[in-house]
Amino acid sequence: MQLIMEILHVSAECYPVAKAGGLGDVVGALPKYQNQLGHIAKVVMPMYRTKFLYDNQWEVVHKGGNNLGSWWFEYTVIKEKTNKLGFDLYLIDINGLLDREKIYSYQDDTERFTAFQISVVDWLASWKHHPDIVHVHDHHTALIPFMLKHCYAYQQLASIRSVLTIHNAQYQGWMDWDKSNYIPHWDGWQWGMLDWNNNINPLACGIRCADKVTTVSWSYLEELRYMSNGLESLFEYERGKCVGILNGIDTKVWDPEIDSYIGDHFTTENIDEGKKANKKILCDQFNLDIDKPLIIFIGRLVGEKAADLLPQAIGDSIYHIDPKMNFLVLGSGDPHVEWQLETMKYPLTGYYNSQIGYNEKLSHIMYAGADFLLMPSRVEPCGLNQMYAMRYGTIPIVRRTGGLKDTVIDYGAPNGYGVCFDIASVGDITNAIYRAMLLSEQPDRINAIRKQLMNLDFSWEGSAEQYIGVYESAK
Ligand code: ADP
């Protein structure tokens, strides 16, 4: 008989409350599926000033205070009243520190997320019982396993098992040692748990102190041993406690049959008409040609996503492969790439367009209306975009890395359904686009692939079970 587990997820993001990327999607979905398996999963996150906060009803469940170094702060824990998301959702309010419009990118992010973590642990200490698992996500919450084990004030929490999921190991939350007094009075013999190359490295600390570590795909876990922004030897050393579990997608949110962001719904039965209707909306809005294959890019415009290669790869494809295709880019990030993508619009009017910024609704219409999705990522821990695209019958063009390697099979291989390439270079991207164009000249094959894509199973059920297995092995 399976034991019922109580799990507290701690995260900086959770969709639809606040999302900057895949982390938000995962934390907004995984707990719901864990509850459906009969467990009790809850989420605690910072209280930002988001629409979700103002649109919903909250009750205060706890108030407390603590020190961040010499600064005394007070925090309030509020709970969403109606279980709207399928799990108990708690927000931590720290006046002046967390209640801002953006999630990240403030100069005092170290102070913000350290105070948040202290508040979570302090609140946990007031519970009359302990959860079985505290599941922390990425570096913003990765000091919690250390605090549970090594802070004198929280010794009663030391038996709680902790699991760290790494959604992105590039960002590690480095802090100077002069901020070590931010962490509540801790056992000085354990300084080595905090240190990495003469800095406090919260992600490295989480990897050492958590009972289990997971990453969001098997291939990413392998890659981290060779390329993890300085933590390679740690991943090699700790490989015994690391597990790769592929993210799922929330098939209730991402469903072309009922998606509330798209007007023209479709299933495998009317896929062609459905996609065309959505494509028409995009082509009308962005001045593109409905008769040409539409290749889209959606995502953060950063080096990890190889966004810097997009302008030339798009330009070269349009000039060298005849102007056979259209491109549409949605994203924000590196200001130089944003500028390039904007200025390209005019010489390439009718072939290419872009929208700089974050737009959830447009992203859904793009997944629904596009023919191909391009993801040339240099690093891709799991990647959700390709899974969303496939769910909407859009063929992925991906670099074989991390989760892209684990989820897309090239159409040249048996049962293949995507276009894969190996090197993040303009030449390889352009060549992959050329292969996509060859594929698009075979309408019967395209139709068969679209059906196959929409029938692939990327749902959360299997992965949610695997996490429970990890929790059990942590006990
Ligand atoms: P990462 O977490 O590295 O950014 P993922 O592929 O795991 O990448 O998840 C990206 C998520 O963010 C997807 O849900 C994608 O649709 C969404 N997204 C990224 N950029 C934008 C944008 N500019 N507008 C709307 N959605 C976006």
Q: How would you briefly describe this protein structure?
A:
The chain has helices at residues 22-36, 51-55, 109-124, 144-150, 191-194, 202-209, 218-224, 232-237, 271-286, 310-320, 335-343, 360-369, 385-391, 402-407, 426-440, 443-455, 460-474; strands at residues 6-10, 40-46, 58-68, 71-80, 88-94, 133-137, 161-166, 195-196, 199-200, 212-215, 242-244, 294-301, 326-333, 352-356, 372-375, 395-399, 419-421. It is an alpha/beta fold. Adenosine-5'-diphosphate binds at residues 21-22, 25, 298-300, 330-332, 358-360, 363, 382-385.
Main beta-sheet strand count, sense and barrel state: 9 strands, mixed
Q: What is the C-alpha radius of gyration, as a whole number of Å? A: 23 Å
| Straight-line distance between termini | 16 Å
Poorly predicted sequence stretches spanning 5 or more consecutive residues:
none
Question: So what's the overall shape?
Answer: globular
Question: How would you classify the helix and strand content by structural class?
Answer: alpha/beta
Classify the helix fraction into a percent range: 25-40%
Report the average pLDDT across residues: 97
Bound molecules: adenosine-5'-diphosphate
